[in-house]
Amino acid sequence: MRFERATEKVAGRVRKMRPSAVRDLFAAATRPDIISLSGGMPDVSLLPQSAVRKAAKAAWCDQMAQALQYGGTDGRLDTRRVFADLMRDEGIRCKPENIIITSGGQQALDLIAKTFVDPGDIVITEGPTYLGALQAFSAYEPDVRCIPFDDHGMRIDLLEAELQRIGPGNPRLKFLYTIPNFQNPGGVTLIPERRKRLIELSHQYGFIVVEDDPYGRLRYDGGHVLPLKALDDSVVYLGTVSKVFAPGLRCGWIAAPSGVLAKVNLVKQGSDLCGSSFDQVLVEHYFTDTPWQRTLRRFVRTYHERRDAMLRALEAYFPPEATWTRPEGGFFIWVTLPSYVDAASMLPEALEAGVTYTPGDGFFPDGRRGRNCMRIAFCFESPDNIDEAIRRLALVIEQKLELYRAFIEAGELKEDKR
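and the corresponding structure tokens:
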């Protein structure tokens, strides 16, 4: 009874929040008979034990007093220097004092929303976009506007049309959130011409660009594309070690102009005062004392092989009514099925067949769009498992399509002409 009384007092913004579809699938994904294509989990078994052991030993034995102590809200200066160096490799000039360390990329998203968003403020994202970002933003009750993408990233023409509706200098328009490299969930990359135009529009209409770049170093095809932050220092850049080192070390960062960081620092003080000093010291030693670039190349080779295995399997097994993206890097492929297929309602049958994926509706703020879509991840399973999972999933989809084809032939449904 006490519990029931407490739940009645939960804030309205919490009642509006939806659980993560990926988190809900984790329990099922641990079953030994399930091949999981749902989670974007890096394969940490590829990390050399000697390198991790060396970094952990240095953190524990050489810097125990610092690693086990409180730290500053901004994070350790040495760790911020490491992140500044990583960004410089990508073409971004950034000083350590323009970086604040966060407990992973997810906390960075929460801090940005908490710093800038009042209820009803406008936030623009790609549509679909990272469901963790939608969760983080939703607590602050924004008006999220989604801009579709194509094979070249966010449709800038559609963004311009939306901005014209919003109007220049609109105080409610706070920021645009984008994952320009190998977008989650779409896998697409924003081409250089569109990046340049996006920056121009941000100045014209007066909004902040928030660039989330967890996958930028995991490129399998094509050449390096300069980050938005390299084109304009006013961009707020979010980074993380989760995809190139270890997600269990909750260590990410925000790089931004000093005025933005001062406000983020103030907000962060109310969240955790400081992050894990131990994690930060370990990260410092990994990126300075071990051949981490060699391990990164191993990650890239392995994920490249798995992406190719998934693309081959999709071509071999999936029905002609399905389409999908062809990512140049990252972890994900976005599959679009005919409009009359509900990927969420099909999930129990896929689980029965021994495979998981993430339904597409969770990547939209309204939970209605994307119902005929799914995100499938190629980062964790072996090529053989990927092939088998796509074969199983194709059989489930084919069973659905056979039923719908019968309805179409009987004139009960219109054919999807996509």
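(Above: one complete record from the training split.) Residues 218 and 297 are 9 Å apart (CA to CA).
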